[in-house]
Amino acid sequence: MKALAISMHEAWLATLMAGFMSNTSSKQKLFDFSDILFRHFTWIEAEMVMAKEPYDYNREAIPIKVEKLSVILHNIIQRLNQIDLQLAVVSPDLSHRITHDIQYITGVLAQLPDEEVTAFNTLRKLDNIELSSEATDALTLFLFEESYKEYELIMIYNYLKAHSDDAYINRIFQILVDESFFHLKSFGDMMAKMGILGVPRTIFKEMYQVEDIEAFFLAGIDEELAAKEECKKLSDAVATNSPQLAQFFDFINNQENYHISLMKDALAHWEKEKNV
Amino acid sequence: MTVDAQLIEHMMEPKNYGTLENSNSEGLGKNPENGEKVIVYLQVMEEEGESVIEDISFQAIGCSTTIVAGSMITQEARGLSFKGATNLITATMKILDKVPPEDAACSEMVALALKASLETYRLRQEESDHPSVTYQISNDCTPKEEEKN
After folding, report:
1. Nearest-by-Cβ selection for B59 from A120, A141, A204
2. A218 part of contact set with chain B, CB < 8 Å
3. Same domain flag for A74 and A90
4. How far apart are CA A37 and CA A233, in angstroms?
5. In a domain? residue B148
6. Which residue, A118, A114, A115, is CA-closest to A127?
7. pLDDT tens digit sequence for A137-177
8. Are B104 and B96 in contact (CB under 8 A)?
9. Cα–Cα distance between B59 and A151 in angstroms, integer?
10. Is residue B142 part of a domain?
């Protein structure tokens, strides 16, 4: 099952990246499909947890630099067809679900219109927004740093959720996964528009195989505070050139407040449960 | 950090990132202040009496600067003999002496992880299950203005 989970993890990310590359109505389809593949990944993971099969989130690098969207779409179809051949290792119901999804998704992907891909041209320009070189550099560094962090958070909260049967904490983990998905999609889309799209790197095991959950929550709160600071700095850096972009980063900054509140709730709940 | 084409290339597609199957040595560079660290994995071959880095990869808990430094230094180190790799580490540390500590910390962590992995390999020649060597950085990556607060 571990090999299947790795293949699904890679297919999910490749499809998400293809979504960033598209500038047509195909984008939403690719995002929807990538969400489905992520859910497949979590369902495979749940079966691994039930079977007590050891696993981690290591995976191969995913080459995505293409000039035509059709090239990565073809690659995703190949990945999914390969996954279809590995499904005997999961339960029959899950296998049935995934195989039918793959049949539909590959059919749609094969029909999507081709597009020129500009997500790797490194021009670092955003439509209708003129940024100074300092603001462009600040935005570039922010996007690389934060897109990785959002991917990291998705994987950390997902792993912790997969290994917890506490409904209260799992509700919080799920909210944080959903929120990080929104941030990752927003930042990834911006990176593609600027021509600097890259796949987030793999994560160290110890980041998600957490031994001290209290220390994890405390560090998480500090990290959210640091993220707020980064958003504030960036908002200030781009405000002169683009009030619209500054507003977007203030909007993201404000969302972090609720994340901090949720993590404090989770920490208080954890401490209470520990003392029962 | 000034962002140029080379830096963007390394950020978009870091070279040699990840674990290394068939590695026979690894070493860690750590920042004790904030928990950031770099692991360098090596596949070393003995060629004509010399230890040579056949393959190399790295993983990091750190910022984009660390990833860029890891990508560049591992590119340079691939194919080098241990003597060449030691010269690379020395040259890197000399350059880092001239830059502010907060800018030097990330690259120092990578250079020390490479140094530690060479040392681990040497020690494993005498004791095959010797644990990985770890070095801690001397530079502090806390920006000066943050230090004051």
Report:
1. A204
2. no
3. yes
4. 35
5. no
6. A118
7. 999 999 999 999 999 999 999 999 999 999 999 999 999 99
8. yes
9. 16
10. no
Q: What is the CATH number of the domain that holds B102?
A: 3.90.1010.10
Do both A43 and A103 map to the same domain?
yes
Q: Are the beta carbons of A173 and A164 closer than 8 angstroms? A: yes
* Local confidence band at A276 (pLDDT 50, 70, 90 cut-offs): low
The domain boundary, picked from A98, A117, A136, lies at: A117
Nearest CA in chain B to A141: B64
Domain interval for residue A168: 118-276
Number of domain units in chain B? 1
The CA distance from B59 to the nearest CA of chain A, in Å, is 7
**CA atoms of B86 and B84, how far apart (whole Å):** 5
Q: Does A82 touch chain B (CB under 8 A)?
A: no
Task: Tell me: do A176 and A147 sit in the same domain.
Answer: yes
CA of A96 vs chain B CAs: smallest distance (Å): 33
CB within 8 Å: B5 and A197: no
Pairing mode of beta strands B37-47, B50-61:
antiparallel
Rounded to a whole number of angstroms, the distance from the CA of A190 to the nearest CA of chain B is: 14
Which of A17, A58, A65, A144 is the best mutation test for B, with the most CBs of B within 10 A? A144
Q: Is the distance from CB of B117 to CB of B37 less than 8 angstroms?
A: no
CB B117 within 8 A of CB B135: no
Respond yes or no on whether ipTM tops 0.90.
no
